[in-house]
Amino acid sequence: MDERSLPRFFVEGAHDVGDVVALQGADARKVRLVLRRATGDAVELFDSTGSAFVGSLRVDAQGVDVRIERRASAAREPALQMTLAQAIPKGAKMDFVIEKATEAGAARIVPLVTERTIGDPGPAKVDRWRRLARSAAQQSGRATIPAIDAPIGLAAFLSAEAGRSRLIVPWELAERVALRERLPALLAGAKDVAIVIGPEGGLSHAEVDAARAAGATVVSLGERILRTETAGLVLLSALLYAAGDL
Fold first, then answer.
1. Looking at 50, 72, 94, which one is the last position of a domain?
2. What angle separates helix 93-104 from helix 228-242, to the nearest 10 degrees?
């Protein structure tokens, strides 16, 4: 049986072989109405510890349960723990960022409020982003769901991250030095890295100065101006490649 082809579900808590775990809400509806699975069909589970299991379904009028039958090989998470701090863009662009950054392997996504942020960081959107991250993690075969923080101001984020081993800020006015020349030194010995992506109007000079004062390295992403929803994904991909995960 190819575990990669099985439907994947995340369940809270720590589990082991022999446990019976109930699927709730949207997961139970997906089993019944979307996948149309029946009792005895196999599924894959990931728990809060990142452990992976294969189990068999029980689907009846009382609910949807999974009996865990054996351990499975957990999907490999990137060795480099990556935090994406993304200035909240307008419209539904943050949905795209959450989904694709999850697929790329981000461990944490922080919605940022900057001087030029125009996106609405309401609590209903945060709940939606967390649901999107969960769904994208299941679809892409990840063993963990990235943390989606509550929105925070850039100054507060920089204060909280001061002292982090690696903090990278791409900026359109940065010195044009190729990433391939900068990343080896930036990532040498690093286990985690955070990147800060500005809004549609870009980060102000004062914000970039504050980032530098917090220990950030300001980098260029090349001659072309990237959209805010594109820049973070480009840098995440570059980090994965430099770290040997692509």
1. 72
2. 10
Determine how many CB atoms are found less than 10 A away from the CB of residue 24.
12
Angle value at C-alpha 187, between 184 and 193, nearest 5 degrees: 145
Q: How far is Cα 241 from Cα 179, in angstroms, rounded to an integer? A: 11
pLDDT lower than 70: segments of the chain: 1-4, 74-76, 165
- In angstroms, the CA 88 to CA 98 distance is 11
User: What is the predicted pLDDT for the residue at 4?
Assistant: 62
The separation between CA 5 and the C-alpha centre of its own chain, rounded to angstroms, equals 22
Number of domains observed in the structure of the chain = 2
3-state secondary structure of 194: strand
* 0.85 surpassed by pTM: no
Longest CA–CA separation in the chain, Å: 63
